[in-house]
Amino acid sequence: MPPLPPLVDPGPPLDRGATERYARHLLLPAVGELGQRRLRAAHVAVIGAGGLGSPALLYLAAAGVGRLTIIDDDVVDVTNLQRQVIHPDAAVGQPKVDSAAAAVRALNPDVDVITHRARLSPGNAAELLAGAHLVLDGSDNFETRYAVNDACAALGLPCVWASVYRLQAQVSVFWADPPAPHRGTDLRDLFPAPPAPGTVPTCGDAGVLGALTGQVGSTMAGEAVKLICGIGTPLLGRVAFVDLADATVTHLPLAPRPAHTASPAPATPPTHQHPLVTPTDLAAELTSETPPVVLDVREPAEVAIAAIPGSLRVPLADVLADPTAIGLAPDADVVVHCKVQPRAEAAAAALTQAGASRVRVLAGGILAWVREVDPSQPAY
Fold first, then answer.
1. Where is the sequence biased in composition, kind Low complexity (predicted)?
2. Domain range for residue 346?
3. Comparing 106-115, 190-199, 330-339, 363-372, which segment has the lowest mean pLDDT?
């Protein structure tokens, strides 16, 4: 199989300042002066200025990528600082795109930075990705990941994709229609459809080692440089499975799905199927003569941070495996909660399907409880 051709045509010759700044690239035969000119002419869109986007943005800026578009709708939270190294402590409360843009400009003022404080969706993807040569997807939710994937496929853009979970990660390059004779793949070849809402924990639910996001984000930046310059063998048609605990990286082949198989429709956000109860109303009910059973479906490490006193603690996976094993009466008054709400919705649905008739969900989860009822406990 021949190598992929360079993605970007070279820009103008380097001046003396650029020659000095990128001297270590110029010494690399694989990059050299021509490759550096390609980097300076490149436009990379980065989805998410979080754990993966932080190192990716810093290394792309340091590499001399000429234009970076940063897309993120979130603000910096103190819990981000453990892994999202592009944001300083002073940026807590600021939009992530603003904090990330400031860090990129401080590192390399020659980089043109475009920011969009928005969440990419099918409706705005073409506008947000306009002019980009490739995309790095560092998003942390399935709805955005599939929207990014489908937008890149429609626009003909290669996408460097990764996901992290605790001490493990996956990295790949998706490109629906690469130059012949290479075969295209995308996220739907790996995961044909998103999982049911609430069934897969996010980093905010399950935790993640900060150094792993640094390793994976740097790998994403390296894949982008390879594609731009046309060097090495990018992860197109392969998935790199990273296990930090075992210090291993395993490459798994990824084949395109049959051409006649239509892509599943993107998942739509679930509608609430169960009544919601506010934290203040639940607090009042818990002091009554007939308090409800509070079922906490978070993981034990989450419960150790903050919990509702007297709650029944059963992780979501156990609830989904056998809802009847919890031992609740079919007519028991049950209020289910998790960190925010999605896992509680999934657990409530499983209980109802198993015959429970009085199931409610705590609106906003334990974070809302801490905020509105018991601020003495920490949020996470």
1. 257-275
2. 276-372
3. 190-199
Q: pTM value?
A: 0.81
Exactly one of 152, 159, 203, 229 is catalytic; name it.
203
Tell me how crowded residue 135 is: count the other CB atoms within 10 A of its CB: 28
Q: Other C-beta atoms within 10 Å of 28: how many?
A: 13
Q: Is 338 a catalytic residue?
A: yes
Regarding whether 209 and 347 lie in a shared domain, the answer is no
Q: Is 203 a catalytic residue?
A: yes
Domain count, the chain: 2
- Which of 152, 159, 229, 338 is catalytic? The answer is 338
Banded model confidence at residue 270, pLDDT cuts 50, 70, 90? very low
Task: Summarize pLDDT for 150-184 with one digit per residue, the tens.
Answer: 999 999 999 999 999 999 999 999 999 999 999 99
Higher pLDDT, 310 or 194: 310
Residue 33 is part of a domain; what is its CATH number?
3.40.50.720
